[in-house]
Amino acid sequence: MTEIERMQYARQYLRAMAKGIHPIRKTPVSETDLVRDPHIVNCLNYVSDILLACIQERQAVQQSPQPAKPEPPAAQPVPSPAPAAEEHRSQEQAAPRSAKSLALLTDEQKAAFLYSDEPIALRAVMQEINRYHHVNQTARLSEKSVRRWLRSVGILEQADGRDTVTDAGREIGLITAPHRTPNGTADSHVIKYDRNAQQFLVDNLDAILAYQDSFFLTDEQLAQLTIAPERSVSEIAGELNRFCDENGTSKLKTTRITEWLCAQGILEQIGTNKRPTEQGAALGITERERTSERDGRTFMQTFYNEEAQKYIFAHLDDILG
C-alpha cells in the first residue's frame, strides 16, 4: 500500500465516522455514540479535509513532469541502441502507472459523460463509467462496490436482504420503480438513478474507488470462517477472501498478514523467508521442509494450527488497520 493509499484509507475511516457509520462493520452507530457529538463530527471533518489536501498535493507532485536527464558529454558519445533495445526502452517509458494511481475518469471524460435524462438502472450508469477503463488502463468499477459505498454513506440500506432507498437517497435522485417481466407483469422493484443521482456517482468516483479497494468482513461472515487442523498462510488468506465477490472488495494479500505477524514478533524475516519466532512457535506456527513438484527443489513452508488461525481471525481488524 502506497502512502497516498494509506491516507485515502484513513480518510475513508474518518468520513465514515463523521457520518455516524462504524468504519469496520459499515453499520450506523448508536445515537449516543461519541462520534455523534457535533464537536467530534467537526473535528473528524476537519482532519479529513487536511488529509484530502495532502493527498491532492502528493498526487500533483507524482503527476508533475520529471526533470530531463542531462545530455551525455560530447567526449563520450553514447552509442545508439539496437532497434530491439530501443523498442524495449520505448515500451518501458510508456508503461502505465498502477491502475490504483489513476482516476477512473479524467476531467475531460467527466465533462463528456453521457447522462440520461430518464432514470436508469445502476448497471447502465456503470457501463458508461467503465467504457473508458481500457483507454485509462484502470480496473473496472463493480456494481457491488458502488452499492456498498452507497450503503456506507446512508444513500441505500438493506432490508430483508435487498437494497432500499433511504430519505437521503431520494433527495439526490434515487427512485424505486416496478420491474416488469417480458409479459408485462410487475414482479419486483428496481432502483433507478435520475440525472442528479448519476451526477452524484460521477462526482464521487474517487471515494467509491478507494472504498472498493478496502477489504472487510461483516460480523456474520466472520462467524462463518472455518478452522482447519492446519493451513498455510495462502490457505488462510483464501478462507478470508472467499467473501470478496459477495462484498465487492479486492482480495487480502498474504503479505498483509505476514507483515503484521512480523510486527508482533510472531514471525521474523530471515533472508527471503518469514519464519516463526519462539512466540510464534508457542502460538502454534510450525515449518516443514517441502519439495516442489515442478522443479524438485526443497524449501521451508510455514503452517498454522487451529489456535494460530483463530488468533489471526480474532485480530483481523488490527491486520487491516
The oligomeric state is single chain
Q: Which blocks of ≥5 consecutive residues have pLDDT under 50?
A: 75-102
Measured as a percent range, the helix fraction is 40-55%
Order of helices and strands: HHHHEHHHEEHEEHHHEHHHEEHEEHH
For the biggest sheet, the summary is: 3 strands, antiparallel
- Give the C-alpha Rg: 25 Å
- Note the beta-strand portion: 15-25%
Total of DSSP H or I helical runs spanning 4+ residues: 17
With strands numbered from the N-terminus, the spatial order across the biggest sheet is 1-5-4
Report the principal-axis shape: globular
Q: Calculate the terminal CA-CA distance, rounded to whole Å.
A: 12 Å
Class computed from helices, strands and strand pairing: alpha+beta
What's the number of structural domains?
3
Mean pLDDT: 80
Compute the number of strand runs. 10
Care to describe what's here?
- This protein is an alpha+beta fold.
- It has 3 domains: 1-63, no CATH class; 100-212, no CATH class; 219-320, no CATH class.
- Helices cover 48% and strands 16% of the residues.
- Strands 1-5-4 form a 3-stranded antiparallel sheet. Strands 6-10-9 form a 3-stranded antiparallel sheet. Strands 2-3 form a two-stranded antiparallel sheet.
- It is globular and about 65 Å long.
- Residues 75-102 have low confidence and may be disordered.
Highlighted features:
321 residues, alpha+beta, 3 domains, three-stranded antiparallel beta sheet, 17 helices, globular
